[in-house]
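Quick start: load a record and inspect it. Here is Signal transduction histidine-protein kinase ArlS:
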Amino acid sequence: MKDKQKTAAKAETKETKKSSLIAKWMLVVTMTIVVSFVIFSIVIYTTVSKQSITEQHDINDNAVTILNGNLEGINQELTVSNVVTSLSPSTKRLLNGGPTIYSNGKSSNSVFSDDLVSSFSNPDLSIVVYNRHNEVVFANGSATPKLSQPKGESKSVEVRRKNKVYLMTYSRVRSTRTGKTTGYIVVQNTMSEYNKLMSQVLRWMIIISIIAIISFTAISYLLVSGVVKPIKEISRVARKVNKDPDSDVRIRELHRNDELEDLALSFNQMLDRMQRYIDQQKEFVSDVSHELRTPVAVIEGHLNMLERWGKDDPEILAESISASLQEADRMKHLIQEMLDLTRAEQINVNYPYEVTNVTEVLRREVSDMQLVHQDFKLQLDMEDLPEDAQIQINHGHLEQLLVILIDNGIKYSTNRKQINISAGVSGKMVMIMVQDFGEGISEEDQKKIFNRFYRVDKARTREKGGNGLGLSIAQKLVKSYNGKISVESAEGQGSQFKLEFPLLSTKEIAELAELKAQKAEKLQSNK
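Running the structure step on this input writes:
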């Protein structure tokens, strides 16, 4: 009992672990979305940053170029006097905080609109000019960036201070006449617009990413739940069927029109097939026990009679032995027919790729039956049947069908001892007809003759040794091979049974042959 409880607990634990499939999928989906947005954000942020930084480099380079253009004409070391003089009186006034225009409203000169004034007026730029002794000879504001002498003509460095990026540009000033270094220019760009822009970009990217991740995670959860829900339903049905094999519970219609719906349909078909096999087994046992009850009772009665007093009477002894043997033979035939019926219901498993030439089987079987029943005339007509007509059926089963129908016609024949067998092709179907001229079958009986153990004339059938299973076996065989069986009959005029099977094309024959060869090869390899 404890072992069973432990097993059940383990099974429940496993089931609980499996129920975390949504969490696992959600984790994968969420991580994928997060990583994707992080990469996307980094790419966008980096692209915007590089573009903006490039513009700031251009501003610094432009300021350096303008200053160099004004200072490279100085041949001596840079000093306050020669630098200020080179930058013009108007510029000096601007640097000292003077007005940009005269009080009379007229422009001073073109220096107010030139690039130099634009550079000095840029609040982000702090421009400092050093001489060769690292002394400041000019500055455009209170900020005085330190000099870092470039190894070459100039260099630009990005510096981070208090979560802000500054762009520092250092350049030599050379005299155009002597080519000697007269001083250095330092341009510090606080890049306020850049820092503001990048801060906003970063903030909006974080906000958008959070919203997108939450939204996509919610959508993913709905999608994943939609996928897992049918799987849970399939698992639930499987557990119920496992507990109760006779359960008729099935997976509900999913209305998905995708692979999961195909899986559910296939699963239901598999369960229906298993249920049919279970029902067949029960029906087989029930039918056999029912039909064997009579012969067993007869044999038991004779044996009891012999045991009590009949064994001393030679006549009673002989009669009992004969009756018992007859009933035993009947039981043997009954069991064989029941086995044939059960096998007929499993044709698609045991004989899925069999192909048979109809003409060859008809000729051989009619000839054999004629030898057995020489008092009957078996007439075969195959004018409308091509010699190479082939259908998907095991040749032994086609022979069995013909034997059942011909033997049935012979049993129920009256005065006219003739059986007509004809075959032909109509459209894409092969037709085989077996006609007798016996007592016929009533309309009411025609609906029942394919039922198990049903006999039109029970007394006469017992005399002939029939068990009422022949036509039931025939119907099962025909249906298993996707065919049809029907009957037309009139009382007192005979009956005609018709078999219909799909005619195989050359392509279909080749495909079935290939599948059969593959199955044989697989079986051989398994051995």
